[in-house]
């Protein structure tokens, strides 16, 4: 039960990101500062964690070996992920962005041919190019159907341009996040832990955030005290607390595929928390029945996808052991 509780708390703190981004946008803050300030604020917290684990020097040495790869894939995985998420907050409510973001499950699966996987054969382990798991995608399209239902509801309230600007950047981010993170996992080769990799990617993405901040200062002026404070809260809640809780939850059930599937499925709660948060804190309009139905499909799809994916992994492990 403890891993499930930790997973739900992680989803709660992740959802704060969508709520506060929408809040800053409604208050007139620039999406540029919402995006860049989060990563500026994350650095000191991550440095403290990594130093506390006595892992800072190995990280810096690892980054020095392949600095070009670190700069490229960190910019993709963090910069081209979070900047579009914040941009979309100007055109769509946070709960809709949170629900649309779940499409990253499908996006991640579509990226499989860009990576290699180790396949066990009679001759031993063989490195083969990944294939798109079409069977697993069947479950994922339940999520896609839920997102489409929610977009249909928004058509009655928003223009086609507004809907596109609120959704298309999120879809782009859904590809950038798994692409950048998986490429960085290849670069690291298992030599760094999660906290080292997140800190390294945050540091390596700094050129992107600095350039974006300069543009933001010129185009929109400096951030307000309120936006700075809320960006700091996003950095702590999503960048630090939620990440630690989620990885702690997955560590507790690492050897049990059914429990791991349950923990992963708790992240579907982000959508519900985002809705409740916006209703209570931002006085947002109550989603209509069509949107509630879409949210239900997204959450059901996440649960089924997580269960199906881990069932396949369990079968593969069994076949290898036999």
TrEMBL record:
The keyword Transmembrane applies. It comes from Neobacillus cucumis. This is Multidrug resistance efflux transporter family protein. The chain crosses the membrane at residues 31-51, 71-92, 98-120, 132-152, 158-177, 198-218, 230-249, 261-282, 288-308. The keyword Membrane applies. It comes from the Bacteria. Keywords: Membrane, Transmembrane, Transmembrane helix.
